[in-house]
Specification:
heterodimer, A: alpha+beta, Beta-Lactamase, 5-stranded antiparallel β-sheet, 5-stranded mixed β-sheet, 8 helices, 22% strand, B: Rossmann fold, 5-stranded parallel β-sheet, 4 helices, 5 strands, globular
């Protein structure tokens, strides 16, 4: 069938332009009399629903195809529309044809009444939603699968970290030398600080880690495993509501782990009470991290400015975060501060000596 | 109890994690038994009457996961204490039997041994 069909305006007195608009409509469209006789049908309708365009005009809606359009509900709605008492808006109906998959349709219909009683017309627009709905369902399924997959990965990561932490602890329990045990326990703490990031990530949206919750978890864990007398030593956490990328939080967490362990080991040899404070605040892209204790304080002088910083991990991490490192007397005690300024980004910032 | 030491049954399908948990239990001074899934755990519980605490993972193959196992044990052997660990976030304590403890993986060893000590003590004095 060619792209144009003869426009029969002889049977009904319709303006050719009206008929042309219907015929060429992109959306399947039917132009009907009130007794559901087809005056004009869009080519798109004939193509979509396999109706011969050459013979459709003049037929009753219910006689099209194998009679599949003779749906009682549709017919009664169209009749109600024709009498002016209803308008069909987004009505969903299933088109069932023999040996074919059911199509999900959405129909809109309205009356066209120009005042002449025997010239009332119906306009019926039909949209086939079947494919769009299937695509939407498929998308939902994929999103669901994706969520399940991510959960699986989190689970495996948690198990892997458990294995590593456990092996380190088993090692620590077995070695004879204190120094070796110390190294293994430190390694264990660092693994736990990374695990804490994982836990935060698994519960947060958008892949960022809320620092307040993370630092609280981290310090609670460190306190639980390293502080024998919780009435004597404590760790306070003063962190604002910042959220940072996972790798930044890992670095911050490792710095805090290192500094807290050092303070617990060296800052309170004789003190009856001691407190370590971990604080973090950010403003725009600038941030400051500080770990301070109220203990015995650092040996003064230029001799060992970084003695309180442990193995050099802290310097390396601070540099990695493009931050400056400062060790100062807190009187009493020691404060180690890492500062990051946004204008340092993109340059290699060398840590400043205390 | 056996020979004055509490008996703890460790349930986890991943061998390395189970071994680590057994080591943890033994280093805390308890006797450790192990099972790789709920079915094996139940067989062991049926075969002896001296198990004081079950420390189980959640995600395991077999007829039931750790949560269902916890409920099963509470129903059948009410005096047995329960600790449940999971690698997935989730787990509202409300879905576990009352009095059982939940930890997410990787767990802090001290937190687990503290919890075991508390639960075993409450069992003896209760």
């Amino acid at each position: 069938m060619g792209p144009f069909m003869p426009i029969k305006s002889a049977i009904f007195a319709e303006a050719p332009s009206t008929l042309a608009v219907v015929v060429l409509s992109n959306e399947p469209l039917l132009f009907l009399s009130t007794d559901l006789q087809i005056i004009a049908a869009s080519i798109s309708f004939c193509n979509a629903f396999d109706i011969d365009a050459a013979t459709i005009v003049g037929r009753r809606l219910g006689t099209l195809g194998d009679g599949e359009w003779n749906m009682p509900k549709l017919v009664s709605l169209l009749n109600a529309t024709a009498s002016g008492s209803a308008k069909i808006e987004a009505y969903e109906i299933d088109l069932k044809r023999p040996n074919q998959k059911t199509r999900q349709l959405v129909v809109n219909a309205q009356i066209l009444d120009d005042g002449q009683k025997d010239h009332v017309r119906l306009l019926l627009a039909v949209t086939d939603m079947t494919d769009a709905r299937a695509t939407a369902r498929q998308k939902d399924d994929l999103l669901n699968d994706k969520a399940i997959l991510i959960q699986e990965v989190q689970h495996r990561v948690a198990n892997s970290l458990q294995i590593i932490a456990s092996i380190l602890m088993q090692g620590a329990r077995r070695v004879q030398s204190d120094e070796a045990r110390d190294h293994l326990q430190n390694a264990h703490h660092r693994v736990m600080s990374i695990s804490a990031v994982q836990k935060q990530l698994s519960t947060s949206q958008g892949g960022k880690v809320p620092l307040k919750a993370y630092m609280a978890l981290l310090c609670e864990s460190l306190g639980a495993s390293m502080i024998a007398d919780q009435d004597r030593l404590s760790i306070a956490v003063k962190v604002d509501d910042s959220s940072v990328e996972a790798d930044v939080s890992v670095s911050l967490g490792l710095i805090v782990t290192e500094l807290v362990i050092n303070a617990l080991k060296h800052a309170f040899p004789d003190q009856p009470k001691g407190k370590i404070t971990v604080s973090y605040a950010s403003k725009g892209r600038d941030w400051t991290l500080m770990v301070a204790d109220d203990g015995i304080g650092m040996p003064t002088g230029p001799a060992t400015p970084k003695a309180g910083l442990g193995t050099g991990i802290v310097e390396a991490l601070a540099k990695n975060l493009q931050g400056t490192l400062e060790v100062s007397c807190a009187e009493p005690g020691t404060a180690v501060t890492v500062r990051h300024h946004a204008d340092a980004e993109g340059q290699t910032a060398a840590p400043s000596a205390a | 109890m056996k020979n004055g030491r509490a008996v703890v049954l460790v349930v986890d399908d991943i061998t390395l994690i189970r071994m680590g948990a057994v080591d943890l239990v033994q280093s805390a001074g308890y006797e450790a038994l192990e099972a790789q899934d709920a079915d094996e755990a139940i067989r062991i519980l049926e075969s002896r009457d001296d198990i004081d605490l079950v420390f189980t993972d959640v995600q395991m193959p077999g007829t039931m996961d750790g949560i269902k196992l916890a409920h099963f044990i509470r129903n059948r052997w009410p005096p047995v204490q329960l600790i449940v660990a999971s690698g997935r976030d989730i787990l509202e304590e409300s879905s576990l039997p009352t009095g059982s403890q939940y930890f997410s993986k990787p767990y802090n060893d001290h937190a687990i041994t503290d919890a075991m000590a508390r639960l075993l003590q409450s069992k003896n004095s209760g």
